[in-house]
Amino acid sequence: MNLKCIIIDDEPAARKGLAEDIREIGQLKVISTAANAFEALEQINNSQPDLIFLDIGMPGLSGLDFLKLIKVKPMVILTTAYSEYALVGYDFGVVDYLLKPISVERLKIACAKARELFNYRNTRPETEASESFYVKVNGKMEKIALADILYIEAANNYIFIHTAAKRYICYLTLKGIEAQLPKEKFIRVHKSFIVSRDHIRQVSKTEVKINDVAIPLSKNFRNEFQKGVVQNNSLRRYL
């Protein structure tokens, strides 16, 4: 089955060229194009595409602002002439980031990523989908069970997902991974750390113990942590 996609770009030549290249590659079906974000909103809500190719620098409403508004959440491949937006784009969990002018070979790679992610999402059982997720590690999609995650640590443009058995290094932001995690299972305790609620062993005013690892508990997140984790618990007095 071909993935349904919409191209959103204010440049007519860019829309036409991208659509032609996508048709040549195959596996994706361009169901419509839009010249701006407002036009695209109606198309997405009506057709519910699997994937959108989204230009960032559009007049009126930028591509990144547009992502904050849409209710239907298709996969997203960003297209832009400016490389400085790459990291910001990954905060939204985008599939890929294509710099203009876009070569056919680079487009093929992005389309393959979208197809691979679509297959992962649609072939695993619903129970598995709610208990695990996939991240890209060294060019491959790795499945990680939520129950195995101890804590997640941010380091520059990467995150480290710590489990009891292994540490996964991913090119993501902490904000990006936080959006994929169920809030009832994970909580932010520091600007650089997310911890599993189930693996918390000890709490003090300034740190959280995950097994034998001390994770800093910052003042900015302490109130939320107290309400979400230790309220109605005897550990509350230490906070």
**Strand percentage, roughly?**
25-35%
* Number of distinct helices: 8
Q: Let me know the number of strands.
A: 15
Sheet with most strands: 5 strands, parallel
Low-confidence region ranges = 234-239
N- to C-terminal distance = 54 Å
Labels describing this entry:
alpha/beta; 5-stranded parallel β-sheet; elongated; OB fold (Dihydrolipoamide Acetyltransferase, E2P); 5-stranded antiparallel β-sheet; Rossmann fold
Characterise this structure.
With 239 residues, the protein is an alpha/beta fold. The protein has 2 domains: 121 residues, Response regulator (Rossmann fold, 3-Layer(aba) Sandwich); 112 residues, LytTr DNA-binding domain (OB fold (Dihydrolipoamide Acetyltransferase, E2P), Beta Barrel), CATH 2.40.50.1020. Helices cover 33% and strands 33% of the residues. It is built from 8 helices and 15 strands. Strand 4, helix 4 and strand 5 form a beta-alpha-beta unit. The longest helix has 20 residues. The C terminus is likely disordered.
